[in-house]
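Entry 12.
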Amino acid sequence: MRKNFIYIKYNNYCFAPTLLPSLIVLTLFPLLIYLGFWQIHRGDFKKHAQILFSQGSLSTAIEINKKNNIGIEKNYFPGVLHGYFDNQHTFLLENKIYLHRVGYAILTPFKLDGGQKVVLVNRGWVPEGRDRTQLPKIPTFDHEINIEGLIVFPNKTFSFNSAYKTGWPKKIQTINPEFLKKNNFQPFIIVINNQSVYSFTPYWQPIVLPASRHYAYAFQWFSLSITLIIVYFLTHIHRL
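Predicted 3D structure (tokens):
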């Protein structure tokens, strides 16, 4: 005979759930609520990011060579740089999808003319080879150039091992503030203009999943939590 976790009697009905389903509900219900609020938080973040992108992209381009410091308030602002690529130290950001194909984002350091500052430039996407050991061939530009692009401050992300290959170009898993600081880059990257002769296939999007999708997911999680409670009560209410 199963032992009831709770026993409540009212008129000709009783509510008598057993221990195991009660523990399952006590575990799943707060988890579903947490996931719902987490999706709301992500939706609010994406909504705010879209506003910043819309405002920044309409602003006057910043001449990065003339600025000592560029703060995060300039996120998504257009920028102009003069200098040259450090062709010998290109990074390959892995697992970037474009048109259902896996590839790399090409990230090349750009040394600013007249100073010691180095900015990492996202030059676009290239497909992965048939063999993962086959690295893409990246054309080099040894002369001083001007490039235009978008100033982007990367979000904080976690990576077990960001760079795991010796030699160059070097494969990496993610770009975050810690990576930029460790490699003595500026705290932002430049996403190069699509029309630039120095770019590859443009793939970058400021927001991959819109805020509305996150809000829809939040509704689903909250609906599941309510359904869970309803099913729990209905399956454990009995007529005496």
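Annotation: The first strand starts at residue 8 and ends at 10. Residues 77-192 form one domain.
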